[in-house]
TrEMBL record:
InterPro entries: NAD(P)-bd_dom_sf, Sc_DH/Rdtase_CS, SDR_fam. It comes from the Eukaryota. GO terms for molecular function: oxidoreductase activity, acting on the CH-OH group of donors, NAD or NADP as acceptor. Transmembrane segments: none annotated. Keywords: NADP, Oxidoreductase. Belongs to the short-chain dehydrogenases/reductases (SDR) family. This is 3-hydroxybutyrate dehydrogenase. GO terms for cellular component: cytoplasm.
Amino acid sequence: MAQSVKGKTAIVTGAGSGINMCFVQLLLRNGCNCLLADLALRPEAQATVDQYSTSSPRAVFLKTDVTDWAQLEKMFEVAEKEFGQIDIVCPGAGVYEPPFSNFWHPPGSPESRDSPSASRYGVLDINLTHPIRTTQLAIARFASSETPKTIVHISSIAGQCPFLVTPMYVATKHAISGFVRSLAKLDTIGIRVTAVAPGIVKTPLWTENPEKMEFINESKDEWVTPDEVAEVMLALVERDQVNENMLLSNPKEPGQTIPIQGGAVLEVSKTVRMVSPFNDPGPFGRSGNLLVDSGETEENLLRRVQSGGLGKQ
């Protein structure tokens, strides 16, 4: 099931910044054409598109609202027109329960853009419905192929842990891990569906949000970098096994070998490990999984709930 990305084509959503941008840059450096799908590109992502606009491999940007299924269809159509067949899909776009679609800011409240009459939450459309629909569209194209195909999802350590502050985000990441595991047997017909589950990653999603940065205690551990996550994502495409110490430049001892197959969810801290669906020890206690201090925030939330200050428009 492993395939070299050289000469292949990838679609990556959310590629305008963060992990997905780093994954695109790594794919391009390894000879893979990329369609970047996002609402906009940060300057560094635009620079990447400019650099690879006429080269081989090549990068193409398509402005895409991932909550619009017609735009997801167009994403595949444009990639096929530009590059021919598609080999790798990463429905990576995601948000960390922002104020505009947040469990603690109900539809109709001043902070929320979720309409009380729309019967949907934006954070669920972006984080869960879009990767499910994108996977459907990919499988429809991949099913008749005679060459290996890969779909790489982005879960999180939030897919293993409860967190009162962002319960809908946590729910989406639990769902992504379960969704990926449920598609494990597709590798018997040549389609490998896997996921990375990073710790807290140093991306603008965190660093440009003061409210979220209040949860972080940087004195107790290290960030996971988007480049490290992207390296593991590439391994999910190109390898049949990885070493748990693959991200360490000078490991103190040989690491455990981890087989890669359909349904695999690989936690990415400073080391890599397979997340088991049953009796998993959880993500904490490993370097790269930052400690989140949300005690005061959670106490404030509980007081607001008791006072009747939540759940109202």
